[in-house]
Amino acid sequence: MTPPQLRKGRPHPRHRFFAATASGLEPVLLAEMQALELEDLAPDAGGVFFSGEMDACYRANLWLRTASRILRIVARVPCSDETTLYRETYQIDWHRFMEVNQTLAVRVRLGQTGFANSQFLALKIKDAVVDRFRDTFNKRPSVNKERPDVQIQAYIHLGHCTLALDSSGPPLFMRGYRQGEAKAPLKETLAAGLIALTGWQGDRPFYDPFCGSGTLPIEAALLAGRRAPGLLRERFGFEAWPDFHAPAFRAEQARAREQARPVPVPIFASDRNPKAVASARANAKRAGVDGAITFAVRPIADFDGSAGPGVILTNPPYGERLGDEDKLGPLYKSIGDTLKHKAKGMEAYIFTVHGPLIKSIGLRPARRTILRNGPLECRLLRFDLY
Questions:
Q1: Averaged pLDDT for residues 274-298
Q2: How far apart (Å, rounded) are the C-alpha atoms in residues 91 and 93?
Q3: Cα–Cα nearest to 98, from 17, 52, 163, 16
Q4: Cα(26)–Cα(34) distance, rounded to whole angstroms?
Q5: Strand, coil or helix: 346
Q6: Which one of 103, 128, 170, 368 is least enclosed by Cβ atoms within 10 Å?
Q7: Cβ partners under 8 Å of residue 341, min gap 6
């Protein structure tokens, strides 16, 4: 994460930001940011840079469905050793970004570097920040690793450290609607990315026959209803910043609410587990889209596509996640049989771990997209069902 065209010590009329996302979703995030008319976009590994006033930061946090967090770039400093890192971090006017009576936390991520201990480097950055406050105000801010007022993110790569403020606070996948957890849920940001990769825009029926806690159909309903996912959150990190402008943020929220519309197409979510379906219903209600989704308790063999041709997107269980992979072969064969006989004329997308289970489906994918679900290498498989 090396910000382009960032020069230490030079004035900038606008701020530079970085929208982070999961590996493989950078093109999806870029398209989202173009639709929001964010400026000076520069894709990079793990996300996209952009520039703007603070209202651009507020808008990005409210609307971006696949971003995991929005970072405000503070500086890019030399980082040849721990002493240099401390000295350069100390020289930053940190009182511009936080109050002395606020709490902070520091998180360090390492790229290509000779450093090995990110925790020690985080401690050096923290020391530099609080020492600068002590020497300036004769008082030090406190550390709160669980719920800090200000979170400092640092990325050390090729002899430099990019220091940034986390404007999001809790990661953006934490929309606020998912409380009843089924096993192994998808993160909301990844679910939104999968939907985007199908090309579905709320123009056809949407089906998820392994809905689990309901993340995919809920994210589909939010997209089709033009509802900003950030409106569901209780707070953002930028609300604790000294330059937070509440009227501008409230105006962005109001404009986002005005964009909402009724979901124009049917969305169907089913699962063989009654507890999972109950959890999905509750989550959809908290998201405000329960009226847009039809839930049912049924196995994949009883799939109902009577609403007409549309898009099937589902995340069935796989071995590393819910049990022995060898036992899931018959389930995946049932998925393939159901698609062949009950989903003609549809596009089907299956998101599953890369491995032998894919062959058990018995259909040849028209496209494979490599993605990760946490530590697992996965594939989004597209099947055209003629």
A1: 96
A2: 6
A3: 163
A4: 12
A5: coil
A6: 368
A7: none
**Contact yes or no for 292/267 (Cβ under 8 A):** yes
pLDDT recorded at residue 325? 65
What are the C-alpha distances in Å from 311 to residues 164, 181, 217, 384? Answer: 39, 25, 11, 10
Q: What is the CATH number of the domain that holds 31?
A: 3.30.2130.30
- Give SS3 for 88: helix
Query: Is the domain of 77 the same as that of 197?
Result: no
Query: What pLDDT score was predicted for residue 181?
Result: 58
For residue 250, pLDDT over 80 is answered with yes
- CA dihedral (89, 91, 95, 99) in degrees, to 10, reads 40
Residue type at 308 in one-letter notation: G
Assess whether 36 and 145 both reside in one domain. Answer: yes
Mean pLDDT of all residues in 102-130: 95
Give 96: exposed, middle or buried? Use CB within 10 Å, 0-12, 13-18, 19+. exposed
Write out pLDDT tens, residues 317-368.
986 544 556 789 999 999 999 999 999 999 999 999 988 899 999 999 999 9
CA angle 195, 32, 44 (to 5 degrees): 105
Residues 150, 215 within the same domain: no
In this model, does residue 36 exceed pLDDT 80? yes
Residues 203-223 have a mean pLDDT of: 97
| All residues at 6 or more sequence positions from 141 whose CB lies less than 8 Å from its CB, including other chains | 98, 99, 100, 101, 102, 103, 104, 129, 130, 133
Residue 172: inside a domain: no
Range of the domain at 22: 15-166
Asked whether 297 and 211 are in contact (CB, 8 A), the reply is no
Q: What is the pLDDT of residue 185?
A: 75
What are the start-end ranges of the H helices in 36-153?
54-63, 82-90, 118-137
| Greatest CA separation for the chain | 74
Planar angle of CA 22, 259, 179, nearest 5 degrees: 50
| pTM (whole model) above 0.70 | yes
What is the sign, positive or negative, of the torsion defined by CA atoms of 183, 184, 188, 192? negative
